[in-house]
Design goal:
Layout lengths: L5 H11 L9 H8 L3 H13 L3 E3 L5 E3 L1 H13 L1 H17 L2 E8 L2 E8 L14 E3 L4 H8 L3 H10 L13 H14 L2 E4 L6 E9 L5 E10 L8 H18 L6
Antiparallel strand pairs: 1-2, 3-4, 3-8, 4-5, 6-7, 7-8
Helix pairs in contact: 1-3, 2-3, 5-9, 6-8
Length: 252
């Protein structure tokens, strides 16, 4: 097993606090992280010196511009975002639902692109948001098309914790949902990550036939009725296939 450097791990714990907080002072970080104040002071000093954090005149820290530079580089190098964008825009304009592009990040899915709608009531989702692979259509499409050994290893160790009222918490039910997803080529979820919402996702494959991302639409559950679903499924699958072709995928 790989041995992780304790200081690096703790420094990442501090930086992760800024995923949900725009500004924090030393006492906030001590309280939220549970790390001793002397250790926090030492690590924060190093992170500030390296440009990972900025400190204002009131003693509050925020993420430094270095993250912005890294963020631009990562975004530029994720070619799938640029390749997918036009297709995502057309899908959003056609269906008038939020469109997401999600990839696997360890045992989670993560949104790497999102196009919102003009609806007055919208979903609270954002680029960088993660979800466990068992919950939500974007996650489950990734889990369904993962290599079989990796999928089985994940299913053997994961605890199915409820997140929304519709989260699948029964292993047999999850296995059946994954089999249905592989057979039909799409995944659909209701109230799994947020109550009263729905998400419909289809897989994107690269030139080697490997699934590399999930394309999804998401919105309020009432807009995903049984009458609308067949057409929504057709259009999401079609858009995902179009992106796959742009990545060099060939079904033959």
């Amino acid at each position: 097993m790989q041995i992780k450097n304790k200081t690096v791990v703790r420094s990442m714990d501090l930086l992760n606090l800024f995923l949900t907080h725009s500004k924090l002072n030393i006492n906030d970080m001590v309280r939220l992280s549970g790390i001793p104040k002397t250790s926090v002071n030492r690590m924060i000093g190093s992170l500030e010196e390296m440009g990972f954090l900025n400190k204002d005149q009131d003693g509050y820290y925020s993420l430094g511009l270095l993250f912005l530079q890294f963020g631009h580089l990562v975004a530029e190098r994720l070619d799938i975002r640029q390749i997918s964008l036009n297709v995502m825009q057309r899908l959003r304009d056609d269906l008038e639902e939020a469109v997401h592009l999600a990839v696997r990040d360890g045992y989670s899915s993560m949104y790497i692109e999102k196009l919102d709608t003009d609806h007055p009531v919208r979903l609270f989702t954002q680029i960088g948001r993660k979800a466990p692979l068992y919950a939500g259509a974007s996650s489950r499409i990734i889990l369904a098309f993962m290599p079989e050994e990796e999928r089985e290893a994940y299913l053997n160790q994961v605890e199915l914790v409820p997140i929304g009222v519709g989260t699948i918490t029964n292993k047999q039910e999850l296995l059946e949902a994954l089999e249905t997803t592989r057979r039909t080529g799409y995944s659909f979820s209701r109230s799994e990550l947020e109550n009263y919402t729905a998400e419909l996702s289809a897989p994107i494959f690269d030139h080697s036939g490997k699934m590399v991302a999930g394309l999804s639409i998401a919105g309020l559950e009432v807009r995903f009725g049984e009458e609308q679903l067949p057409e929504l499924i057709r259009k999401v699958k079609q858009a995902a296939h179009e992106i796959s072709l742009k990545l060099g995928y060939s079904a033959s």
